[in-house]
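Residues determine shape. We examine one folded chain.
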Amino acid sequence: TDALNTLARYAAYPSDSTWYVAAGQWPNNSVSEDSDEIVRPRKSAFQLPNGRFPRKFQPSGNTDPDGYYAQIAKTTDGGNTWTSLFSSNGTFYFNEIDCNPTNPNHCCVAGESPDGPNPGGRIYCTFDGQTFQQTFFQPATSTAGYSIMGLRFANETFAWAAGSKMNAVAPSAWFLYTNDGGKTWDSTSHQIFGYATLGLDVVSDKVAYAAVDDLITQTSGVAKYIAL
């Protein structure tokens, strides 16, 4: 679509005719074609060129904004025409977007950047299907970066977001949740030390699964959440 000026990354389909695309890119997000190394696709700027998360992460301190793009586009006629609802250059890029299962005008999207002028993990939400506003931001520090890659609604008010707290000591998979449809987020209650999160799937407000990487053994697995 001509409405996008960067790369489409994730999409949400809350109705037959209303769809959203979360787009974006980061600096140097391609692997050299001359490399013989076995790699997996990079889904995050926090990953190394081989697609693995680093065992130890140290923020670069680079404040150069060049190369970051974030955009959201929407169609209400099943893809025939598209409108850009949000566009930002030089700060971050978007990851997964999802919508309230009963309201196609209520959606939230995850975003992140490991460096640049405003590094950190963030969430933007719309409650009218037109205006996306930031409802959560965890800024990076001098020793840690914050990733948010996955976001899924369970019902009208409850949603999970998942990412990683990346640092040199005790990195952890990082899970956030909202009980008010994305207006506020709890980011302190759920972590799994030694792992990074690639994405998640939400069955209900009681059950969820996340794809995770063990940063010590560099193997992948699945984490399951069950509310007691």
Remarks:
- Confidence is low (pLDDT under 50) at residues 30-36.
- The CA atoms of residues 33 and 39 lie 11 Å apart.
